[in-house]
Design a protein that fits this description.
Layout lengths: L4 E4 L9 H14 L7 H7 L4 H8 L5 H20 L12 H10 L3 E5 L4 H11 L7 E3 L11 H10 L6 E5 L2 H10 L2 E5 L6 H6 L4 E3 L2 H10 L2
Parallel strand pairs: 1-2, 1-4, 2-3, 4-5, 5-6
């Protein structure tokens, strides 16, 4: 029996978490007496592991300082959670209906994200959807996107082959990771990178909303 696996990015694909990411990044830079990066620059690095994100934001800095910033970002995010100042991270419209429809068609569901294990667990538990996914891959246990490690492990967990798997994401890092893992790449237009960028990075197509995504997958499964 063929196992079909749909692997979703989290931030910018399943849920809109940019407010918290930008706030934590601003606090991290302030902690280090640095001017905060523009919000659009922070959105550009969502999906990367933290050291790689810091390297993109501050390419002139030393590698050790990128590592320090990554740890400071985690500290700021944990402080926001402890202080209960985290903003609500809503699911995008149609997310739950799409998960229902794909499961009804026999698809297994997974996640590959630059979030930490703790951050992903917290977000999924808040929305009551953690048990919907058979595999959860995070930056805590893998090289940063676009390395294929997350997708390779997700397919092993699910018992799926590359030709029967698809990566669904909003950034060029997701599309490049899919290409590196030899799986189909579907871009979504509601996230943090533009449709043309996603196409150039290898997206098979870019969908405008979750109903369109569901229809596309059920037509091409």
């Amino acid at each position: 029996m063929t196992v079909r696996l749909a692997i979703f990015d989290c931030d910018g694909t399943l849920m809109d978490s940019q407010a918290n990411i930008i706030a934590a990044m601003d606090a991290c830079f302030d902690m280090n007496s640095l001017p905060p990066p523009p919000a659009h620059s922070t959105r550009r690095v969502v999906g990367l592991s933290l050291p790689e994100a810091m390297a993109m934001l501050l390419p002139e800095a030393e590698t050790d300082f990128h590592g320090k910033l990554a740890e400071d970002y985690k500290t700021c995010f944990k402080r926001m959670r402890a202080d209960e100042t985290l903003a609500h991270e809503p699911l995008y419209e149609g997310t739950l209906d799409a998960l229902d429809a794909l499961e009804a068609k026999g698809w297994l569901l997974g996640i590959a994200t630059g979030k930490s294990d703790r951050g992903l667990d917290h977000a999924l538990e808040f929305h009551g959807i953690r048990d919907r996914f058979v595999t959860l891959q995070t930056a805590d246990r893998h090289a940063s996107k676009p390395h294929p490690s997350m997708l390779d492990q997700a397919m092993r967990d699910a018992g799926a082959m590359p030709e029967d798997s698809v990566m669904i994401g909003d950034t060029v890092f997701d599309m490049e990771m899919a290409r590196n893992a030899r799986v189909r790449a579907l871009g979504v237009a509601w996230g943090y990178h533009g449709p043309e960028e996603l196409t150039d990075a290898g997206a098979e197509t870019v969908l405008d909303d979750y109903p369109e995504l569901t229809a596309y997958l059920t037509r091409h499964d």
